[in-house]
Structure formats: structure tokens, C-alpha cells
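Researcher: I'm comparing several assemblies side by side, and this is the next one on my list. It has 842 residues spread over three chains. Same procedure as the others: predict the full complex and return the structure.
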Amino acid sequence: MNAPRAAIRVTDVSKRFGGIVVAENVNLELRSGEILGLIGPNGAGKTTLFNLICGIHTPDSGEIWLRDQPLSRVPVYRRARLGIARTWQNIRLFPTLSVIDNLLMGPRRYPGEALLAGIFGARTRRADAQAARERAEEILARMGLSDARDKTPAELPFGQQKLAGMARTLMNDGEVLLLDEPMAGVEGQVYETIRQVVRDEASAGRAVCIVEHNVSFIRDLCTRAVFMFNGCIEQSGTMEELLASDKLAELYFGGRS
Amino acid sequence: MEYVYSVLVMIGIYTIMASSFNLIIGFGGLISIAHPIFFALSAYASALVNLHWGVPIPLAILLGTLFAAAMSVMLSLPSLRISGDYLLIASMGFQLGFVEVIKNVDFAGGAGGLTGIASIYSGPSRSPAFVVTTLTIAATVVSVVHWLTHGEYGRAIRAMRDDEECFASLGRNPMAIKITIFAVGSALAGLAGALYAHYFQFLSPEQFGITQSALILTMVVVGGMGSTWGPVVGALLLTALPQAITFLNLPPSVMAPLQGMLYTGLVLLFLFVRPAGLVAKRLGQ
Amino acid sequence: MLESQILLQIAWTSVSTATYYVLFAIAFALTLKVAQLWNFAQAGIMGLAFYAMYAAMLGWNWPHPAGVAFGLAVAVAASVCIEVWGFRVLRGRRSSSLMIFIFAIVFAEFIAYLLTLVFGTEPQTLTRSIMSEVHLVGGIAISDWDLKALTTTAILCLALFAYLSFTQQGQFLYAVADNGELAELYGISANRAYLVSLVIAAVFVSFGIYLYGTRASMIPTAPLELMLFAVIATILGGIGSILGAGLAAIFLSVLQSASILVIPSQWQGSLTYFVLFVVILFFPTGLRLPAWIRRVARAG
């Protein structure tokens, strides 16, 4: 994908809740094929930035762009249909649905969502449903979740829940992938799987942005990183550059480095 | 025998009402007390287009049903835009307000009621034919609600109930689903109303009051919210039970509030003692 | 000249009629603010309070103050019961708001049927005659009832204002309204605050229904409509603003009285519902009050 512009551009975005500033003049570009790390202490505004990009919050000022399209008047569900997919820090699988059904909620076009179209366009609907199912099976296999397909989320160990959450997000098959702490609390095989998936998705041309506390994971994977503090972007560059900065060390590691 | 037929027709009509209300409240998680008013709007619409413009009855019933759906969007669209709380409040206004309106419109018979409505069937086998028609339609409605809540659409409804924000972030539109559910449920109530109009051939605004709201809610809560068979059981029980009380020969001034207390009392009882209803809900719903 | 006299008379009468609407609206808005509860059960409390007073004053011939006290006691007791054995149980089970709505509205309906069974559907008043003595002031008729109603309402509102602003208890209510869980951490019991708000609401409702019953007649299903009026006022006044609800109630009452001049009488009954729709369509978050009123409201 040789896009002339970044997949996502955040320009001068500010957001307050009451008196609390959660984003202040944030400028950010997320390009296709790159893996951008978003680091910073708790409360720095990383998740808020995701919420602003996917439309759960609307900025007080500034604009967010998908390619050349301004997003501020686009509701959450439409942004997802335009190809902005995200995971959640606390996973948020649908508890009453099986793993496969959770995945089937994820495609940009959901067969049968529009009831009338579902009734009158039965053939396309069946084709869509078939395609979604095949894609879901494929992603489950890639994640090593094929055995868990019919279980409910509560029956899965934490690591597999994390994988299932990510699998559901991959169903979107869009341009942008926002991952909120994909590595928190996972280790071993699950860790390896997630790392591989993130790499593959980026090389497939998707723009990936990761909020993560695990610095070695960021250094290992990310092409670029951004350091946030108090709703502001303090610094951006390669992970090496960021780690060399005194400010980051002071704010993030309590001046220990 | 005529009495038994009319009870059977009522069971069919209440099964449609309870099933469609269950779609709204049990599956959609939307609370409204205006279900009887959609029944009434369609009943009047169907009766009036047939009476004044000579529209054939089956077409009149269809028009009434669509009218109920259209009116439901008028209620749900502005209020759901804000929140689910507002739907309940607006539905109270809708319910009380339209009863008031019907009372004051002369071409709908006013407070005295609308008489002379045409019947679908005539002749000696009118009533049995009606019983068969109503029960068949009721069975169809129950299957439609089941199909709607258990296929791909049902999966979306459950996901929406689980976590609306996450649901939207996956590209699904919760508003569209809520408004659709409300419209389908209200249309089915309208269907029941139109059937009622052309069977009993008489409509009066008194019949569609808050007591009916309470009765239908009771059927759903007692039977079991969010299950396919719950409302059917509820409709059967609560149509049969008041018939039993009528044999007590109480004066209407005692009878009416007693019925109301029975309905609302049962809801309160089940709410605290057996919230899942008689037919227990499926896991996790 | 005559015109302006009529208008003045309508204005005066509608403001004095607004008194009980103000009390109902404040009661509703208070429980919504503190307990985040759309307390539709309030209609049931209204009905109970009215018929308790009715039984005491006209059945057992008690003097008015004793009758009011009895109605008040019944309303407070009923409110405590529905909070402790109703809402609290449902909250404890983490029931969905759907269940809490159903409980509240069905409770109100249950009470309406119970009262119909006991007292019938005949319209009733609290006094044998609802005529009260009238004084002419500058050509405007001012009745004893008007004065009684305005005094009662003013005293109750001032008392509530003082309670919320100057007592520690009142401040606790605000703390719980802002953030119940946080308040718990500071040792303020949210349950207690909810209970207090419901009891205050019961007091307001009781006096409101007394004023209503000495002026107009009551049937068991009337409280539901009266409550809907309070709900509209609460929304129009901006959710979370008690003063806003009270002012909106006055506004709506004046609007209703003024409408007599332009709307045929048989459509008067539908006016409330029409206003409800206008409010939900165009003012779902309430009317914006002028800045100085909002400042006072925040203080109160």
C-alpha cells in the first residue's frame, strides 16, 4: 500500500472531562504498514486517544482523519465499517456468545443486520455469512483457538480470552488496527502468538497502533513510538531515541535509569 | 359454545400481544407501556379504512399493521436518540395521550366507541373459522419472534444487550436494531388489534387503557422474559384465570380493580421471587 | 383595560395552581438527582397520601392538621417500605434498570387498583366544598387557598434549600448524587442518602396532594397523570437541577392555564402529552436557564 497520506491523522485534538485534560493539542500520524507504540504512565491519555479515534469520545477541538476523510461527524459504528478496528484493555467479549459467535459480530458487513435487506437479499446474505464464517475459522486456527470455538468467554483461561478479543478485532479486515495493551497479563505461547500476529498484520499493510507498558515488546516490534504524558505528546521517534531521553526515564521509570 | 370460541380467539390475540411485547422488552431490553395503544391504533385504522373507503378487510388489516409500525417509529426515534429512560416516559405520554385523542375524535366513534365494523367471515362457521385463523397467525408470530431472536439477527441482539459500546465499535448500529425491534413488535401488536377489530366488531377507547399494559406485562414477566415459550404460557394462564374470576359474578366496579391488582400483584411477586418467570430463560440471557 | 385584568387574573391563578405541581416536580427531581432513580412509584405514594387524608378527614372526621399528619405518616412509611424492601433489594441483586423501572411503574399501578377497589372511581375532594373565601385586591380575586398554597410551598422550598445548603446531612446527599461509590469511601452511606431523598420526596408529595385535594377532585388514576407532569418538568428543567424542575413546573402550569384561551376545552386533557412530546423532541436536556439562575441553582 503506497498511500500518499497517513492512514490516520490526528490534528490538534484536545479533549477535557470537566476540568481534567485528557488530550491537549495532540498531533499524530499513523501510517500503513507501520507499528506505532504508544507509551506513557497510567492516565496519560493513551486509551482516551483510542476512544477519540474510534469515536466513543468526540474531540472538543481538532480533527481526526482517515485518509482524506474527516471523522468528527462519523458515529462509532460507521468508523468501524470504514476499517478502524480496536481491542479493549479489559477485552470485553460478549459473555453470552460463544467464541465463534463473538468473532462473527466483527466483520464490517454483518449479514442480516438490516432486517429488510436480510429478507429480500437472502442470497447475498448467505454468501456474506459463509465468507464471514470461513474467515472466522481461519483466524481461530491462526490464533490456535480452534478448540475453543464453541466455548463461552468465561470458560477460557485469560490468555485465550485475550487472543479471542484480538481475533474478533481482526474480523474487521480494515486498514487500521488499534490494540490496547495486548500483552498485559500474558506470557509464553500466547505472547508469541500475539507478537507474530501483530507482525503479520503490519506486513499485510495495516496501520497498527499499540498501547503497551511492556517496553521490550515495543522495542522489539515497533517501528516508531510516541510518549504521552498528561494528555500531551511529549516525544516521538524510534524506541531507542525515546529510551535515551531523560524526560521519559524520569517520568516513566521514576528517574531510575 | 360461542363463549369458548371467543376465549380461544382471545388466547390467540393475547399470545400475539405477549410474544411481540417480549420481543421488545425481553429481547430488546426496551421498556414501554404503550403496547396496547399500537393495538388500538391499528384496530381503529383497519376498521376505519374498511368502513369509510371500502378497503377490503385483509388489505385493511395489513394497512393497520403498517400504520402501527410507522407510529412506533414516531415514538422510538426521538426518545431513543436520548436514552432508554426516555422511551418509557414518552410511551406513558403516548399511551395516555392517544386514549384521550381517540375519545375526542368523532369519526372514530369518540368515547362511545366505534360500532358496525365489518367481519372477515360470515355465516354459521364464522367463529370456528376465526379461531383457526387467529391461532394460526399466533403460531406464526411466535415462530417469527423465535426466528428473529435466534438467528443472525438474534446474535446481534444478544451482543447489543451484553455490551452496547463494544457492539458499536465493531461496526454494528445499536439504534437501528432497537428501532427495528420496536417497530416489528408494535406491528405485531397492530396485527392483533386489527384481528380483534374484525372479530368483535366493536372498539372503545376504554379497552386500551393502562390495565391492558399491565396485563401484557404480567403475561411476559410471569411466563418468562426473553424466552420463546414464556409469553405463550403467560398468555394462556392469564387469559384463562380472569375468565375463572368472571364466574364469581362480581359487580364490575369490584371486578375491574381486582383484575388490575391481580396482574400488577403477580408482576411484583415474580419480580422478587422468581425473576426468570415460569419458563426459565436460556443460559445467560 | 378589562383584557389586562383577565390576563392578570389568569397569571395569578396559574401561579397559585402551580404550587402543587412545583412540589411534585421537586420531589421527583430530588430522587432522580440523589438516587439516579426515575421514581415512578411516586404516583402510588401520591395516591396513598391522598386517600389516607380523605379517610381521616371525611371518614373519621379528624381536623385537617391531624388528617394531613396521618397522610404524611402513611406516605413516609410507604416510601420507606418501597425503598427498603423494593429498590434496595433490586440494587443489591444488581438488577438491570429495566427491572427497577418495571417495579416502580407496576407498584404505582398496583396502588391505583387497590385504591379503586377500596374507594371507587368517584371523584373525591378533601373538603366538602372546594370553594374558599375570596378577597379582591386591585380587581384580582385572591382566595384563602391561594395564600395557603403559596405559603406552604414557599416554606417547604426554603426548608429544603436550607437543609441541602447548610446542614451536613444535606451536603451528604449532594456527595452521593455526584458519586455514590466515592461517597461510600468517605463513610457516607449511599443507602441512607437514597432513603432520606425518598422521605423528603414523600413529605413534598403529601403537602402537594393536600393542596391539590382541597382545590380539585381526585380519582385513583389521577396521580399517574400528575406525576407525568412532574416528569416533564424535571426533564424541561434539566436533569439534575432541582430548582430547574420547580421553575419548569411553574412555566408548564402557566402555559396550561393560558392555553384555555386558545385551545378548545375537550383537547385540554391532551395538552400535557403534547407538551411531553415537544419537550422530548426539542428540549431533551432541558431549557437553558439564564446564567444567574444557574448560579443560584448550583448553590442550592
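Model: For your comparison table: Chain C is about 75% helix and 5% strand.
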